[in-house]
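Morning, I've got a small favour to ask if you have a moment. It would help a lot if you went through both lines with me. Thanks so much in advance, here it is.

***
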Amino acid sequence: MIRSYGTWALALVLSVLPVCGVQAQTARPADYIVAVVNSEPITHSELNAEVQRITRTMQQQKQTPPPATELRKLVLERLINERAQLQLAQEIGIRTDPASVDMAEQAVARQGGIEVAELHKRLAQDGIDVASFRARLRDQQTLERLYEREVGSRNRVSEQELDQYLADLHANNKDPFAQEINLAQLLVPLPEKASAEQAAALFVQAQKLLDRIRNGESFEALVQQYSAADRSNGGQLGLRKGDRYPAIFVEATRDIPVGAYSQVVRSGAGFHILKVLERRAPEQLTRSVVQTRARHILLRTGPTLSTTAAVERLAGVRKQIQSGATSFAAAAREISQDSSAEQGGNLGWTNPGTFVPEFEEVMNKLDEMAVSAPLVSRFGVHLVQVMERRRVELTPRELREMARMELRASRYDKAFESWAQEVRARAFVEYRDAPQ
């Protein structure tokens, strides 16, 4: 229930709608028509309100708005284009039902950590009509569906184009986790319960060994004398794909040429000095991704449970988990309202992009076994715990589908611009001057 779907237009709504902090106009000049799009007018008050909103938004983001005349022209053109696109959506039968608007409205409220009733109250305080707010949500959802149908149909990728794209990716593949590398290591061990002073002393010892190596002493000889790891064959770890090495080893050596040495690398085992012995490009295109195994507790908000109450309850559950009074799995089985509850909230192994952005953003920042603070998503309020992560290689089919999505995404803006220009060219647009 928290998996992602196409909601980029909802993100646009969240970024452009005046949810809070908008000051109502104290005076309104006499209204008049500034443009007509296929017999549908755009009024001065509409244009003025949009110009003011964009100006406020840019100022809040520490950006300098364009000169007033230029901004006004840009905003009017956007309103004209949007009006023509909405008219096209109506002509071809694309509609947004009230239930979809309700869901979008609830998502906006959750994004602000408030209830819909509180959202309406704030809109009223700011002089924003709720009906207009919902109309804007409806229009954005209608446009999203229109774009999916019209632009998506233009943005198809042929198998030949995909083959060429994959060939180009292979030719320029610089992913260190896809390359085959052979490393050798010298390990200065770190006791499991070492103090900060002990760790610092051992780091200094490792750094002195690295200085000796860079000053010309034999790496292999120092491995035999000082390394706590396997010393056979000069500490070589063997030729293998990068994703079969610890990620910290790959990152530490990714920009190092063959024959060179890394800086001192710390791991749970101690301090490592790594030598790059060999590096080979993959014979065929491969790609690996970091999968996450997480679990969550979900409380759904609604008439019987407010967002505030859900956040407070899960904050208390989090304290119990952190104190050891209960386990995450036990709490999930007891109170979670997601289908994963029976499995202790376990969501299984997932690829990047599986979950909705607001959930995944928090999950990706968590250390393993850490428990998040309560987070609000469009589905309710969650606690999240990352159990473990792993890097896996995509299957040829997964790689091909990922490449197809990348290629389509890279072409989307051009396809959209071409389509939008055609819609505008078919529309009758009449500009009108302000009355004297």
